[in-house]
Amino acid sequence: GQQLNQSPQSMFIQEGEDVSMNCTSSSIFNTWLWYKQDPGEGPVLLIALYKAGELTSNGRLTAQFGITRKDSFLNISASIPSDVGIYFCAGRSRGAQKLVFGQGTRLTINP
Amino acid sequence: GAVVSQHPSRVICKSGTSVKIECRSLDFQATTMFWYRQFPKQSLMLMATSNEGSKATYEQGVEKDKFLINHASLTLSTLTVTSAHPEDSSFYICSPISGDRVTEAFFGQGTRLTVV
């Protein structure tokens, strides 16, 4: 099925570093969602974006809805060990219920 | 966020048996339920969509007779894996959607199915 292009696929960073990941799509979305998934758990919603250009923060996390409606990024500042996990972006088109998911970004943090 | 309860979290079954997975939305009415399957190190793959009181719509390549979905109430949906085979071993995740909160999507905790 359709997928978003999420990058990078994996990141290996030092604790305290900032992290940036993004998703791009060939089609326009009206909603962008960012999730974190820990091993053996379901995805947990981090940030939801509903308007082009919207910039939203959740603690150390910041995400933006691209102006073109075809991309979004997620930044994590001052990473800590509990940030380890897999981050997924997801997009939804106007009038659609289904989500389209990115392939995920696996974040590993060296203490 | 919404409260979603999925059970069991892990199940091991023998080949040929059936397994039922439950998904409950505890603080809202789920007019629609998505069921996903996730293989190791991969993204979520949508299996089927069900609306309360209606038959589920299955994605291409997903056998409807093998993955039975029941969405009889606004707070409970079940996925039954029938005649399970080892290749059905996977992580199954539900995602209930409320008609008035369709812009958000929350997920259950997932069920790790191992067929031996």
Percent range of helical residues of chain B:
under 10%
- Based on CA atoms alone, the radius of gyration of chain A comes out at 13 Å
- Between the first and last Cα atoms of chain B, what is the distance in angstroms? 36 Å
Question: What does the average pLDDT of chain B come to?
Answer: 92
Q: What is the helical fraction of chain A, as a range of percent?
A: under 10%
Q: Order of helices and strands of chain A, N to C? A: EEEEEEEEEEE
Instruction: Report the sheet-strand fraction of chain B.
Output: over 45%
The computed structural class of chain B is mainly beta
Strand content of chain A: over 45%
What is the first-to-last residue Cα distance of chain A? 37 Å
Low-confidence stretches of chain B: none
For the report, how would you describe the main beta sheet of chain B? 6 strands, mixed
CA-based gyration radius of chain B: 13 Å
Following the backbone from N to C, one meets helices and strands of chain B in this order, namely EEEEEEEEEE
Order of strands, widest sheet of chain B: 2-10-9-4-5-6
User: Which spans of chain A of ≥5 residues are poorly predicted at pLDDT below 50?
Assistant: none
